Prior knowledge:
Blueprint: H1 8-14, E1 19-24, H2 27-43, E2 46-53, H3 61-69, E3 77-83, H4 90-103, E4 110-116, H5 121-124, H6 127-135, E5 137-141, H7 149-159, E6 162-164, H8 168-181, H9 185-198, E7 210-212, H10 214-220, H11 229-237, H12 241-253, H13 258-280, H14 285-291, H15 296-305, H16 311-328, H17 340-355, H18 360-369
Parallel strand pairs: 1-4, 1-5, 2-3, 3-4, 6-7
Helix pairs in contact: 1-2, 3-4, 4-6, 7-8, 11-12, 11-13, 12-17, 13-14, 13-16, 13-17, 16-17
Amino acid sequence: xxxxxxxxxxxxxxxxxxxxxxxxxxxxxxxxxxxxxxxxxxxxxxxxxxxxxxxxxxxxxxxxxxxxxxxxxxxxxxxxxxxxxxxxxxxxxxxxxxxxxxxxxxxxxxxxxxxxxxxxxxxxxxxxxxxxxxxxxxxxxxxxxxxxxxxxxxxxxxxxxxxxxxxxxxxxxxxxxxxxxxxxxxxxxxxxxxxxxxxxxxxxxxxxxxxxxxxxxxxxxxxxxxxxxxxxxxxxxxxxxxxxxxxxxxxxxxxxxxxxxxxxxxxxxxxxxxxxxxxxxxxxxxxxxxxxxxxxxxxxxxxxxxxxxxxxxxxxxxxxxxxxxxxxxxxxxxxxxxxxxxxxxxxxxxxxxxxxxxxxxxxxxxxxxx
Length: 370
């Protein structure tokens, strides 16, 4: 049975299932969900816990099967926790997990908890994962994307009796906070906890929330954001100029390879060019996107920007990408920076500004002038 992450608390109030599978790409959320399940189990006299971490091709699954098949002599109930950091249980692990799943409901007094990373579609369609899903409760924890991060921060602050001002200044505070912790939810959690220690509610506040100012948040929250090239691609195509500059600076500071950043930007330009050429040859946009294997969020971004990109613009961008390819490999190009990261900044800004959505006021002004 699939269960939404937000429904876990309500589900646990009704009682424990014998088997839980937690998977996703947010370790903090998985950790908190696992803690909630363990706490509920301890309250129901699950006094023993065994942890098995699956590592390597020669992992001994017999110990896991033995732990899940019988109760301890010294404990009424026990938790059997199986961690698979790679998300791949292996040849022997697949039938073992299926056996554990099928026997879960018959093993009274044993709670099985399976922890997994983010899974691809092929893994989610595997026999062992289908068995876990069929015989137990499965929860998926997706990343908190940048647009949703300010609200997530506000909710976490509210839990500890804090909030920002309910005006434009408060929104600016949340946006600043999100910029500092983007891509690093564990660090965001730590920074929120730090604010609870720095600005606690005064004694006798009777539940009143502490209102945090921008200056308090600015002075307390460290710059712990982490970025990856795939998020950079989305930010460029969304026309988010300030965020792109911040992400490039972050990637450089983290030691990301220049050639990988260039490949990501150049591949987006090449894909835009191929789709535009296909449209020029009479292909409908949806068909052209499928043929170029453009899916998900990137598909929506392409649909938004392609009508505004002319073939000449894309040819110029493709030429710039070719020049930057040489720069990051040590070549010098006239009228371009010799530093690879500066050249990448320039290329990213060329594409980003072409993808920038004109402001409503600007569009209105342009219409009035016409």
